[in-house]
Write a structure and sequence with these properties.
Length: 329
């Protein structure tokens, strides 16, 4: 599979050249961010600012630098009309929108609480299109995404991308800095024995989540008659990548503590892109009651419950939620 670079892969995918330009700009942004993250300690970029972002989170220095890189590199993309960033409250309109122009949604540095402890972080992105001339609307459901992907800044820097039905993984080659295709046609194993959830929130969970996790923890003697493993890396990109490689289910549900906010994770630049990737890899992505990509957004920073990964596990969790909600009626 030597020399299937990202550019060759995109060209062979017969995509609009302006979309190829945009995806290459996104890849360039991720290459620069990878270097900035790796050299954070030398450039005094670790640690936090005293700024609280729209999410109510203290911004890390590298959050801002990563956002600036996306803006600096992608803003010149010929048919890019707007940027929707986790780190910026307002939508950034780069030009008067014309039908077909691209809209870029991104979390420039996800999981940045891992930076100071040298654990994996990532960037998440999705692209949609302006629906009609002059239409300054970025609130389209995830079904309108024409591509989605993430960069994982781990032991190696990877770019995972879906531009249609397949999910492809590229690894940044040390030296040439080319993204080379190393993981073609990534698919989520249908069955799994691994779940990912922040179990410190057990006291806030609703019944369907407690039931699911209790059954996993009960292992061979419980109703699942199987033992499960648990992982939690506080980096959604790392969790999703692990699920693409060896299966699993990732849960960040709404609970009694975050329900007023709608959940923890953001729809437009975390849940939707990952939902497209996971579904195109044969998995499923739900809030517990509805497919994530069917949600009609109400705001660029809207939060939603997230349950995604191996299809059989997500379907089980949806069944638990449905039976709970019908019991409440
Ligand atoms: P908690 C990172 O802040 C993030 O948005 C996701 O990447 C990650 O899965 C989750 O939040 C971690 O949340 O509550 O464990 O800190």
């Amino acid at each position: 599979m030597a020399d299937m670079t990202l550019r060759r892969y995109l060209t062979q995918s017969a995509l609009d050249p302006n979309l190829i330009f945009l995806l290459e700009d996104i890849a360039s942004s991720c290459r620069v961010i990878a270097n900035t993250v790796r050299n954070g300690a030398f450039e005094g970029n670790l640690g936090s600012t005293n700024v609280t972002n729209i999410q109510g989170e203290t911004q890390k220095t590298l959050d801002i630098l990563a956002n600036d890189e996306f803006e600096r590199i992608c803003s010149n993309s010929p048919r890019l009309a707007a940027l929707v960033s986790e780190e910026v409250e307002e939508v950034t309109w780069l030009k008067e929108p014309e039908a077909g122009d691209y809209l870029l949604y991104f979390d420039p540095l996800d999981g940045s609480s891992n930076l100071d402890v040298n654990l994996s972080v990532g960037s998440i992105f999705a692209v949609m299109q302006v629906q009609s001339d002059g239409d300054r609307n970025v609130l389209h459901s995830g079904r309108n995404q024409i591509c989605a992907g993430y960069a994982l800044y781990g032991p190696s820097t990877m770019l995972v991308l879906t531009v249609g039905d397949e999910v492809a993984g590229f690894t940044c080659q040390h030296g040439t800095a080319d993204f080379q295709l190393t993981h073609p046609d990534m698919t989520v194993p249908a069955e799994t024995a691994e779940f990912a959830i922040n179990t410190s929130r057990y006291r806030y969970w609703d019944t369907p989540i407690r039931r699911y996790v209790d059954e996993c923890v009960a292992g061979e003697d419980g109703v699942r008659q199987s033992s499960f493993n648990m992982r939690w890396t506080a980096s959604m990109v790392a969790e999703i990548h692990r699920i693409l490689i060896r299966g699993g289910v990732f849960l960040y549900p709404a609970d009694s503590n975050n329900r007023k906010a709608g959940g923890k994770l953001r729809l437009m630049y975390e849940a939707n892109p990952m939902a497209m990737i996971i579904e195109n890899a044969g998995g499923a992505a739900s809030t517990g009651l509805a497919s994530i990509m069917d949600i009609q957004p109400t705001g660029p920073h809207q939060r939603v419950p997230v349950i995604l990964g191996s299809r059989s596990e997500v379907e089980r969790l949806v069944t638990y939620h449905m039976s709970e909600s019908s019991a409440e009626q």
